[in-house]
## 1
Amino acid sequence: KAGVTQTPRYLIKTRGQQVTLSCSPISGHRSVSWYQQTPGQGLQFLFEYFSETQRNKGNFPGRFSGRQFSNSRSEMNVSTLELGDSALYLCASSLGATAGGTDTQYFGPGTRLTVL
Amino acid sequence: KQEVTQIPAALSVPEGENLVLNCSFTDSAIYNLQWFRQDPGKGLTSLLLIQSSQREQTSGRLNASLDKSSGRSTLYIAASQPGDSATYLCALMDSSYKLIFGSGTRLLVRP
């Protein structure tokens, strides 16, 4: 069974540009979450999608947005890039169980974004 | 607001030693707790998941415990090996389906 895949793996952009990152979840998983990892702030939650609906959003500015398609693949977009957006962006997929706490999160390898 | 703390921040042990990593949290209203491993520049690998109603989970040389009343979880690694060297992260899932992470413990197992 293939794991979570993220593309591209590395990106270099300049300030002011926008970027789109892609995440393909494990087959059968309906929930996709996005996290930002930086040395200073650690891992921070961006948003979570389940069946094409955003269920939750973290404390990030509106420049960060996302969407999920009918096949559960997800994209996140960052507009008007700032130097501080340089980070490892990780996505995680899960079944998205709404009852109980059995839902293991499986992470992809991440996209390393560098903003110059 | 849920806060997750991991102590120690870094740990260096000789090969073969048994070790314990600690995770504490401030709000016991959690769905589950997961321990992850992260190798440098890589994604996260799930090691163990403990449901809110459970006390512990075991997988091979790993054992994780959960005590909600005291706001603590431990990850026990038996007979450590150099291949165990990595950063270990604990994360709580809250009622809004997001994981709240600790800052991690960086483990080095010396041959």
## 2
Amino acid sequence: SYVLTQPPSVSVAPGKTARITCEGNNIGSKSVHWYQQEPGQAPVLVIFYDSDRPSGIPERFSGSNSGNTATLTINRVEVGDEADYYCQVWDRSGGRVFGGGTKLTVL
Amino acid sequence: EVQLVESGGGLVQPGGSLRLSCAASGFTFTNYWMHWVRQTSGKGPLWVSRINIDGSSAAYADSVKGRFIISRDNAKNTLYLQMNSLRAEETGVYYCVRAESGTAAPFDYWGQGALVTVST
């Protein structure tokens, strides 16, 4: 099966840039989607197909994907961005796979 | 406004059965594949099952094959998940999720979830 590895936590000060990584074997050849989940809420799609943004998601959110690492970047981080973030891909052998999640803490 | 509202969750004993429903509104139900995704407290989501637009094709995670059945009633804009022979480790929140057709499509709308507790 296909495994996606995320750091358990990332901390950043307000106004700075947060980068959350998602590692997988040759993930650059796959389409990566990112979800934000606030406590007690359902996940929300924030980036799809590596770098596209759904309507209503701030331009501060961006994504990239190359080699063995996909990255979600959040510029000018706000307190309201504090949440768990999950990457997700489809893999021929593993199906729809999610990463273990990264807790973003805004200091 | 897209709405996905799950119901049918609750407490069930190991080996028991439960049927989840998901009422969809605010979009053309027959244009989308529908999925069930489970999340256990403190862990990442886990894809469980999906069904295509007319219900003619379904897929399941290996762990639930032969025990869970996904179905849809397009006349009622409703998605179902029949869960049999439930196990304690299948306790969690079950989300009804929408996605466009295709294996790589993102999950663009999620319901608020139905809590299923498998315990004695």
